[in-house]
Each structure stands twice: as structure tokens, then as C-alpha cells.
Amino acid sequence: MVWGVVFSILAGILISFQGIFNARASEKIGFWFTNTFVHGSGFLLALIILIIVEQVDFVKIKNVNPLYLIGGFLGVAIIYSVTKGITDLGATYAVTILIVTQIIVNAVINYFGFFGEEIILFSGYKILGLLLMLSGLILYQLA
Predict the structure, then answer these.
(1) Keyword Transmembrane on this protein (predicted)?
(2) What band does 141 get if pLDDT is binned at 50, 70 and 90?
(3) Backbone angles phi, psi at 44, to 5 degrees
(4) What is the DSSP string of 57-122?
(5) By the 8 A CB rule, do 117 and 109 touch?
(6) In which domain, by residue range, is 67 found?
(7) Distance of alpha carbon 135 from alpha carbon 2, whole angstroms
């Protein structure tokens, strides 16, 4: 569990940098070139890590639900959305909306157990927490 927290914090830090870096790069070289470079360089790094760390067995891919293999396509849409949000709204506001939206969508996914996720029922405290986050977003925007 500790490592899950550590890597979640690391992801938050890296996503913050990535969103800003992508927005600044796209201002200079265009969004699609930036997106292509980001995914291309990410692919190369992931391929190198795959070759070094894991036994490469492409036959295993037949055991995966095809829906779960569209992450690259989602990544293109994510990079576009984050970059456009940061460019139009600024990093803090865009990422605040992103995080609150992510929490709400994941809460719905967990509540219904979509995609094989463990069902997690809402408690009064969880609903209150979501409402406080939404209130914080509104207060942040009004300030």
C-alpha cells in the first residue's frame, strides 16, 4: 500500500510537469507534432524497458480483452485534452477540473464494478468528500 501511495504521488508530479511541458511545446511546434513526439518517445522508452525487464511474449496479448488495449488511443485524447485545458485555463484550474472529474468517474466505475473493478459503495463521508472537492473547485475559480 505504501508503494501505491508513493507512485500515485509521483504520477501526480509527473502529470503536472507533462501537461505544462506539452502545452508549451505545442505553442512552438503545434499540437499534433507535440503529441506524436510525446507518444513516439514514450513508445521507445516503454519498448526498451519491456525488452530489459520482461520476457517478451506477444502470444499473451490474445488473453487480454481488446477494449483494454485502446490505452494508446485514449492517451492521444488525454494529451490533447490536458494540453488544450492548460493552454485555455492555466495549469492549476485545468488540473483541478481534471482531478475532480477523474474522481467522480472512477467513483461511478467502482460503484457499479465496471471493467472488473471491485465494487465500492458510497458512504455519507465519501459523498461529502466529493461535494467538498466540487465546492473547492468553485471557490478556487471565484477567488
Answers:
(1) yes
(2) confident
(3) -60, -45
(4) -GGGGGGS-GGGG-HHHHHHHHHHHHHHHHHHH-HHHHHHHHHHHHHHHHHHHHHHTGGGPPP---
(5) yes
(6) 2-142
(7) 29
Count how many domains the chain has.
Answer: 1
Query: Based on C-alpha coordinates, what's the Rg of the chain?
Result: 18
Residue 47, φ and ψ in degrees, nearest 5: -65, -45
* Mean pLDDT rounded to a whole number for the chain: 90
pLDDT at 70: 92
pLDDT the model gives residue 92 = 85
pLDDT per position as a tens digit, 35-76? 999 999 999 999 999 999 988 888 888 999 999 999 889 999
Residue whose entry in the numeric block shows the C-alpha cell 485524447: 77
